[in-house]
Amino acid sequence: MEPLDGRRPPRRRGRKIFAALLVAVGLLATLRIGGEPSAELTSDLPGIGPETRIVASAFEPVRGLERWTLELIQGEQVTRLAGRELETRPAWKFWGPLTAEDGAEVTVGHRVTQGLTAGEARIRLSAWRAGTWLRSPGPVVRELVLPVRLTPPQLGVLSSQHYPTQGGSEAVVYRVGETAIRHGVEAGGAFFPGYPLPGGLVGERFALFAVPFDLPAGTQIRLVAEDDVGNRAQAGFVDRLKPRELRSDRINVSDTFIGRVAPEIEAQTPGLEASGSLADRYVAINSGLRVDNRGEIAALADATLQEFLWKGAFEPLANGQVMARFADHRTYLYDGSKLDAQVHLGYDLASVKHAPVPAANAGVVVMAQYLGIYGNVVVLDHGFGLMTLYGHLSSFEVSLGARVTRGQTLGRTGVTGLAGGDHLHFGVFLHGTATDPVEWLDASWIQNRLARKLGFGEEAAE
Length: 462
Description:
The protein is an alpha+beta fold and 462 residues long. The protein has 3 domains: 38-148, Immunoglobulin-like, CATH 2.60.40; 152-245 and 436-462, Sandwich (Immunoglobulin-like); 248-431, Glucose Permease (Domain IIA). The protein is 16% helix and 38% strand. It has helices at 10-31, 255-268, 278-299, 437-440, 443-454; strands at residues 38-43, 52-59, 65-74, 77-85, 101-108, 119-129, 140-148, 155-157, 169-176, 182-187, 190-193, 195-196, 204-210, 221-226, 232-236, 248-252, 321-324, 328-334, 337-344, 347-350, 356-358, 363-370, 376-383, 386-396, 403-404, 409-413, 424-430, 433-435. The strands form 6 sheets. Strands 17, 20, 21, 22, 23, 24, 25, 26, 27 and 28 form a 10-stranded antiparallel sheet that branches.
């Protein structure tokens, strides 16, 4: 019997609320599935070769991921690469533990995946969301279709008689297959890219290369070719590597010298602070800044012109007396003790004060500025990664971007940078690796080691 005021008894009202809650929980348990997962699948290469890195990930923040699998599929063969069963949140709960995001990074390729064949493969990522006893939604699927290439590019050496000297240069001519996207010469950590051989047949390439002066004994110098998925061919071609007899020198460094050169270099070098003792400042310049300067020179080769701008033997400073040679090992003494040690990677040539400095050969000015240890410096690009450097100048007579002819005056000798007296520091670089300039001054060397291989004929050395 209802009360006269029309209100229901508290117990009956509570029962109805409880029943409604049970219905709601039942509906949640029956119908509330997780949100559709987002899934992402990427590859670090455009195909599968020796080793290709695949990154798979899935995300579902509502009830969490239930499971996921990553598979490689070729024809009827399915290879499971990765996968996991995961904890989800119950359908009736809006709090509690779950795994919202998961995935893996795997490597596939003929070095690590059994049964892989040339052709095409699918990488399939399947991600399931949480379901209920009544509703079991299918997975979200993402696929990558990738070519599978198992063989490296074709590679064959065409030239002969390769007798480089440690610290010297050479050339090699070769043929490479059309699948190669990177090819050239590797010598230790240095790489010298190849280019189409002028006047050559389809696939014929050449590379100018240098043997680093500090190449460890036993290190192989190889011709290499790689495709876009990492397949690699390589071939030895050096007939004999001539060792270099290293010279050593001891140089006394005084407070007077440091006091003269350090303030100029520090003022001209942004970020280089004049801190510590004179000896500290000298080491920061002679060691740390030297490395930075060589990096700036090496970076210039990234934009080298792909044409031979030079012809014939390179021209030295007129009447220049050799004060220091390439790869001289220098020990710097301060107050009778060793302060630093470096290798001199060029030729120091002295003539008269403020002597005109000629372009050693035709080229394009790619640097004309103050550069740390070199002081005022001009760098010429002669094409295909070959560059010459003229340091310690007192003045410039060319500007950035100018095309110059052999013998044209670039500037005047001086004492800028770490120069102890008026002279020219002359350096030769191949793709940033310093090489002995004396070879490039020798018409016979150019004819025998370069021109004959590259098909330039006798006029190339004139």
